[in-house]
Design goal:
The protein is α/β, with parallel strands linked by helices and 331 residues long. The protein has 2 domains: 139 residues, 3-Layer(aba) Sandwich (Rossmann fold); 145 residues, ANL, N-terminal domain (Rossmann fold), CATH 3.40.50. The chain is built from 8 helices and 14 strands. Strands 1, 4, 5, 6, 7, 8, 9, 10, 11, 12, 13 and 14 form a 12-stranded mixed β-sheet that branches. A two-stranded antiparallel ribbon has the order 2-3. It is globular, with a radius of gyration of 20 Å. The two termini are 35 Å apart.
């Protein structure tokens, strides 16, 4: 289910309920990390757990995931299946909060579906040319390549080139769309300026992922690419969570990928649920549960990100909530 399509909230809730029940069934049977965590918290392990039970489950923190990996190397204990079921292991760059994550064939396909929502939202389709600058360990390569191909577009992936070479490749390949990290895309913007490249020779759309928390999601982000006259589509993703938010190009902020994630907003001081105000706006810490990665899940993960969410109507017709503002609680 792609969140861009106008569906009723009850349909998304039904999808979440089915996926969460199945996720918890698997986790409570064989996931050592969460079985131990819930046993210590007194959560019954021998019954069906649904969304109505969510508030009874303890939060997961990044510190817990880090400590588990450090204490159970090389793979940690947050695994629901035998290692023979996993096909991909991602080791994050030095300094990342969570060191590694795993995918089965099932969750690898889920990454593609999540990216497909981004591709659909950006209007990427058959006949368009997409340029994808990657470094050797780029997370974006996982899912986005297949999602672009699934949409029928032509994708050119280029690995470990300097920005000037990327710009020349964009011109030579007549790319319609650029998909890259904020750092990579800004490097290309500066290189195009130095090379004196005309904006008509550059992509008309830029999909920007790996945004640092706190980067403005409105006009200031779009102004970074003013010289290119390109429409900007921000994407929020983390290797241990998934692709959980994306911009539609028709409003500020990012839509939450609520068909694939359960989204909560809590008071960071005491962990209590935050209710919306009269304008259907929520303010508090973002908590995420990914539904498509049962082999290496995060359940009620406190992200440490302060958000302002809204359900006010969007011009794209999407009914999921949007992040209007975000910042790090640590700051």
């Amino acid at each position: 289910m792609h969140d861009l399509k106008p569906v009723e909230p009850c349909q998304i809730r039904a999808r979440q309920e089915r996926a969460f029940v199945e996720l918890m069934r698997r986790v409570l049977e064989t996931n050592e990390f969460y079985r131990r965590k819930y046993d210590e918290a007194g959560v019954p392990l021998q019954r069906q757990v649904g969304i109505s039970d969510l508030s009874q489950l303890p939060f997961t923190t990044v510190d817990e995931l880090v400590a588990d990996f450090a204490g159970s190397e090389p793979d940690g204990s947050n695994r629901t299946h035998p290692m023979s079921r996993y096909i991909r292991r991602y080791r994050a760059p030095a300094g990342a909060a969570v060191a590694c994550s795993f995918d089965t064939a099932e969750s690898a396909a889920w990454w593609v579906e999540c990216w497909s929502s981004v591709i659909e939202s950006a209007g990427i389709e058959r006949g368009q040319r997409v340029y994808l600058p990657l470094d050797a360990g780029s997370l974006a390569a996982w899912g986005v390549l297949e999602a672009v191909q699934k949409a029928g577009a032509l994708v050119e992936a280029a690995i470990d080139r300097p920005p000037e070479e990327h710009v020349e490749a964009l011109r030579a390949g007549r790319a319609d769309v650029l998909i890259g990290s904020l750092q990579a895309v800004e490097g290309l913007v500066e290189a195009s300026k130095d090379l004196g490249v005309d904006s008509e020779e550059l992509p008309s759309k830029v999909v920007v992922h790996s945004l640092p928390v706190g980067v403005s999601l409105g006009a200031p982000l779009r102004r970074r690419f003013t010289r290119w006259h390109s429409a900007c589509y921000p994407v929020a993703l983390d290797h241990h969570i998934g692709v959980w938010g994306y911009g539609c190009g028709r409003s500020t902020g990012m839509h939450l990928h609520e068909s694939e994630f359960i989204v909560e907003v809590i008071d960071p001081a005491d962990g209590s649920a935050v209710a919306s105000d009269e304008q259907e706006t929520w303010r508090g810490e973002l908590v995420l549960t990914n539904l498509g990665r049962p082999g290496n899940p995060v359940i009620r993960l406190r992200t440490g990100t302060q958000v302002v969410l809204t359900r006010q109507a969007c011009r794209c017709g999407c009914i999921t909530r949007r992040i209007e503002e975000w910042s790090s609680l640590a700051s």
